[in-house]
């Protein structure tokens, strides 16, 4: 089980907002955190590898893990599954570092219900138009998936309501969002609230 010296931070936000980019840019801040790698049943995108940014498995494998109770949280996100395993969370949390997770709002709410001191940081778009432009420009979705994501983006304000921090990912300046997230994490770590 996790030690009492850790904090959990979740980075979340609507599809296409730039979560992966912000997370990548945060690496230069040497935060006392270790990232938990989420498992997904979606196919790899160009530039991704096994374990970066996800563990990629088949739908059948994911279903088996659900049946065996291996997930601390999981959700169907569009046409694929995403989840955080108990094993991965425990391995990371047993160290002396805080825990960093990236997930959708459903997973964030599940983890928050289990660990109420978790801090959820929502990466927000400058506007819905820019959010949708980013999603379209990414160009890796089938038309059906893209339509679902664009539709969900219309209600992102409701889906991501009532979390702790909201950081705008300005157009062409994700490093600013990363710097703000890093400052929040440093502040929260210095407060010293234990989660476990």
From TrEMBL:
Record EC number: 2.7.4.8
Single Gene Ontology MF annotation: ATP binding
Keyword Metal-binding: no
GO cellular component, one term: cytosol
Top-rank lineage group of the source organism: Bacteria
SMART domains hit by this protein: GuKc
InterPro entries listed in its UniProt record: GK/Ca_channel_bsu, Guanylate_kin-like_dom, Guanylate_kinase, Guanylate_kinase_CS, P-loop_NTPase
Domain called Guanylate kinase-like: residue spans: 6-186
Entry keywords, A to Z: ATP-binding, Kinase, Nucleotide-binding, Transferase
Sequence similarity: Belongs to the guanylate kinase family.
Record-linked NCBIfam families: guanyl_kin
Full protein name: Guanylate kinase
Organism: Candidatus Buchananbacteria bacterium RIFCSPHIGHO2_01_FULL_44_11
């Amino acid at each position: 089980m996790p030690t009492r010296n850790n904090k959990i931070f979740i980075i979340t936000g609507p599809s296409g907002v730039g979560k992966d980019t912000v997370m990548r840019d945060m690496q230069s801040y040497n935060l006392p955190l270790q990232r938990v790698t989420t498992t997904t049943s979606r196919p790899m995108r160009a530039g991704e590898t096994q374990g970066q940014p996800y563990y990629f498995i088949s739908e059948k494998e994911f279903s088996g893990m659900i049946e065996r109770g291996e997930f601390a949280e999981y959700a169907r996100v569009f046409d694929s599954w995403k989840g955080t395993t108990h094993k991965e969370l425990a391995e990371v949390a047993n160290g002396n570092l805080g825990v960093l997770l990236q997930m959708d709002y459903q997973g964030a709410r599940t983890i928050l219900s289990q660990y109420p001191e978790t801090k959820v940081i929502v990466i927000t778009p400058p506007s819905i138009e820019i959010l949708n432009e980013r999603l379209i420009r990414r160009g890796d979705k089938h038309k059906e998936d893209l339509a679902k994501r664009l539709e969900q983006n219309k209600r992102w304000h409701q889906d991501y309501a009532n979390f702790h921090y909201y950081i705008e990912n300005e157009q062409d300046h994700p490093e600013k969002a990363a710097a703000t997230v890093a400052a929040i994490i440093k502040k929260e770590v210095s407060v010293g609230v234990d989660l476990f």
